[in-house]
Each structure stands twice: as C-alpha cells, then as structure tokens.
Amino acid sequence: xxxxxxxxxxxxxxxxxxxxxxxxxxxxxxxxxxxxxxxxxxxxxxxxxxxxxxxxxxxxxxxxxxxxxxxxxxxxxxxxxxxxxxxxxxxxxxxxxxxxxxxxxxxxxxxxxxxxxxxxxxxxxxxxxxxxxxxxxxxxxxxxxxxxxxxxxxxxxxxxxxxxxxxxxxxxxxxxxxxxxxxxxxxxxxxxxxxxxxxxxxxxxxxxxxxxxxxxxxxxxxxxxxxxxxxxxxxxxxxxxxxxxxxxxxxxxxxxxxxxxxxxxxxxxxxxxxxxxxxxxxxxxxxxxxxxxxxxxxxxxxxxxxxxxxxxxxxxxxxxxxxxxxxxxxxxxxxxxxxxxxxxxxxxxxxxxxxxxxxxxxxxx
Length: 365
Hints:
By secondary structure, the chain is mostly helical. Helices cover about 75% and strands about 0% of the residues. Strands 1-2 form a two-stranded antiparallel sheet. Helix 4 runs antiparallel to helix 13. The longest helix has about 35 residues, at about 330-365. The two termini are about 55 Å apart.
C-alpha cells in the first residue's frame, strides 16, 4: 500500500472514476446526466398548455360575444336589448348541469356517490359558494343587458384591483409602488375605453348601472374564486362532479327564486323570446361553467389573467368583423383596448419581479 499512498491524494469520486469501469462507477454514485432522461415532466406539456390557453381565451371571448349577439333592436327606443328573460337561460343551465353532475356520480360511483352529494358537512359549505355564484350570474346578465361584450370584458379586468384590495384588507398583503401604479393605469385605461365607447355609441352616455353591476359581479366572483379554491382542496376526497352538484343545488334554488321575482321569466312564458342566439347563450353558459371548474385548475394564475386580458382583443375584433354588430374599427378604441391588455400583462408580470426584489433586499440586511 505504500506506493499507492505516496501518490497524489485522490477524492472518492476521482478514485471511482479511475479504478472502476463505467457500470461500477454508476454503482459508486457517479452522475452521468442520463439517469433522468426518461422522466416525464409533471402536469400537462407545453403544447397541451398552449391548447388549453387558446381554448380558455376562446371561451372567455365567445361567452359575452354570444350574449351581445342575442340582443335585438327595440323599435321604440332604437336601442339593442335582451328580449328573452335573463334568468331563463341561467336557470336552464343550472338544471342541466345539476342533472349531468348527478348522472356522472351515478354512472361512475353508483348510489355511494349520490349519497356523497347529500353529505351535510360538504353540502353546507358548497351551498354557500353556489349561492354567491348564482348572484354573480344574475349580475352578469343584468350588466350585459346594458353593456357591449368588449366593454364588459374590459371592466372585468378590475378584478385585479379588487383582489389587491381584498388581500390588503384580509391578509395585510401590501402591493409595491410599481404594482399600485400599474393598477391605477388599468383603472384609467378602462375609464378611457368606456368614455370613448360612450361617445361613439348610440346611447351617448356611460351606462352607470351596467358598470356598477359589473363591479359587483367582479367582487362576488373574486370572493367565490377564493372560497372555491380553498374548500375544493379541503374536500379533495370528493370527486369534482360531486362538488359541482353540491354547488348547483343552492345555485339552482337561488336562480329559481330570482326568476319568480323578476316579473318576466314565468309571467311571459319561460321560453318567450328564445331565438337560436338565445340557445347559443344557454350553451355558452354550460361550457363556461364546466370549463371554469375543470380546465382552470390546469392553468396557473399568470396564464389565467393574461388569457382574460387577451379575450378583450378577440371580442373587439369579433364586434368589428361580425355583421350582427354595428361597431366599426376605430383607432382610439383599438389603442384603448391595447393599453388595457398591456397594463394587465405588465401588472401580472411584475409580481415575480417584486418578489425577487424583496428577497434581494432581505438578503442585503
């Protein structure tokens, strides 16, 4: 052993590399870079995420566009409005989704999963969430009766401001000055778009009640999203369709009560005013409900917010290009839409930058 120790000392790794063959070196712990070449990444692939993102943008753009297209011209006032009952399409979607979710539970789990729907502990929680979702649907239809699809989607971006204020009040999570500046920019760009739209539209004034309903709808939706995300994870032992059925029970009862009080749904006949466009609204509500509950769990919050903002541009070009809309391409409106989109994407992208800057400042102390 003396000649061996008289040589230059070797590390364990270099000794294994020198004295052992490749297979033995692997057993000794040498890393070659080929160990994980067959390991598949977790979650959907980049191509699948791209497809889901495009589908998300399309559904978010088509839903308000179809509602806007279902409006008819009132010969007395000269304005476009919804001729059918707002709650008839929403109630139809609720009943359809509730039946579909129960049938899925029966087909996939039998009577055992049907009994899970009536589990009092989970039913109490998801009934409260369903009640708030029902109020959101009512506010959505009430606001869409006075606003165009593009204006509605632009005002939906106020959810970033409302979410920031909620987090500040509830959790004490403060925004950096850069983020507050971007939030103010988002609000001002929405105001610019609404003012420009009111001057070029037929009404000649901003529909304040429609704007107020959108802001209420956004507030309810933000609260619903937080509660649904929390409790769907807390009750993750329940299948997705069981949770949806539990929400839809209170959702359907609430919409049914509103329909009896609105003075139009049952008094004029449930299907009064239904046209092929109204059937499209009914279908759009179904797709929106199922995609919101299922597909959104596969996309991160950054892609969701960018997708919501991108839908504004898609709706704008639909309103300009499709023959059923009176809108024409105008440079000021287009620029206002682009400012909204870019300010939203800037705010979403600033989160990681602010977090890294805060971490750097903490390390310097």
